[in-house]
Amino acid sequence: MKAVAKHDAAGAGAAPAAKAITLIEAITQALAWEMRHDDSVVVLGEDVGVNGGVFRATAGLQQQFGPMRVLDTPLDETTIAGLTVGMAAMGMKPVAEAQFDGFIYPMLDHIICHAVRFRYRTRGRLTCPMVLRVPWGGGIRAPEHHSEANEAMFTNVPGLRVVMPSSPARAYGMLLAAIREPDPVIYFEPKRIYRQYKEVVPDDGEALPLDVCYVLRDGSDVTLVTWGAQVKETLEAAEQLEAEGISAEVIDVATLKPLDFATIAESVARTGRCVIVHEAPKTAGFGAEIAARLASESMYDLLAPVERVTGYDTHMPLFRLEMKYMPSTARIVEAAKRTLAAS
Q: Which of helix, strand or coil describes residue 272?
């Protein structure tokens, strides 16, 4: 089925009982809902049980569902990944946590060599319905290995969905959808915005569609494409541009793999210009894939070269330069103006 753009209406028509919650609270809410309604869902990871996780995403779940469904594991990411794949192959729906993005690398063997190959390897007799939750990105003044933006490497893995919500409502609905998927999902959580703001999220068990981009703001002069924590700065940039008479459309990619390129291409066909914004290093970042597809599939719609506003090709410069590393609202505005000046 062809993916279609979804205009975001978070909180619209919410029931009076629904609460305004943060992104991290939305994750907890989604996990609790799915565990109440599906006994095959289990949660596992380092400190997820008694302590409720390092970011408290699983706070209270072990008390509600018991230690057999919310499992504290050893501090061993390879074992966590192996357990998760094994549980999924046997019909459970495990939701594992990689405590930080930089801790995911020991899990790669199980993800790449096993999780994503079960359907292919068994000609569809077995699937691997697992979710790996990954606190992602910088901006919290954490030490080395705790502030990585490594999403691009996972978009190159066949059979793997790569998801990154950017708001409480999308975090709730997309996590429900990810758990219900029959194949593995990497669910990146932008930790810089875990508690940045609240919005009303009804706890109704309604999943949001995966594999589609979300059009957060309509515009006619330039298309701004982003995902994760950078949605905030991109929307701020669109507001600044509007104050100067420039109409910017903002697209939250949300699911990086498989990419809903049609929504991006349709927007660029209207605006003729595109700025791609992401926190990860520029070289071979996922923005390069979007830019390459625009060059090959939307070349005659472009009125100016595609701009990329990204992190730099270095490790995160801890701590004082951390916020300088990440794309700022000012850098996004400048890039948008360059596209307008190019034609």
A: coil
| 145 annotated active-site | no
Say whether 20 sits in a helix, a strand or coil.
Answer: strand
- Give CA–CA dist 247/263, Å, rounded: 18
β-strands 222-226, 248-252 pairing: parallel
Per-residue model confidence as pLDDT tens digits over 156-167: 999 999 999 999
Decide yes or no: CATH 3.40.50.970 for domain 18-201.
yes
Residue 331 has pLDDT above 90, yes or no: yes
Predicted confidence (pLDDT) at residue 1 exceeds the cutoff of 50 = no
Do 149 and 311 contact (CB within 8 A), yes or no? yes
pTM surpassing 0.70?
yes
Query: What are 191-212's pLDDT values in tens digits?
Result: 999 999 999 999 999 999 999 9
Q: Give the number of other Cβ atoms within 10 Å of residue 196's Cβ.
A: 15
The domain ranges of the chain are 18-201, 214-341
Taking alpha carbons only, the member of 311, 313, 314, 335 closest to residue 324 is: 311
Q: What mean pLDDT, rounded, does the chain reach?
A: 94
- What amino acid occupies position 239? E
Q: State the catalytic residue, choosing from 110, 114, 146, 278.
A: 146
Strand, coil or helix: 72: strand
Chosen CATH of 214-341 out of 3.40.50.1000, 3.90.1300.10, 3.40.50.970, 3.40.50.920: 3.40.50.920
Q: Work out the percent of the chain whose per-residue pLDDT is above 90.
A: 90
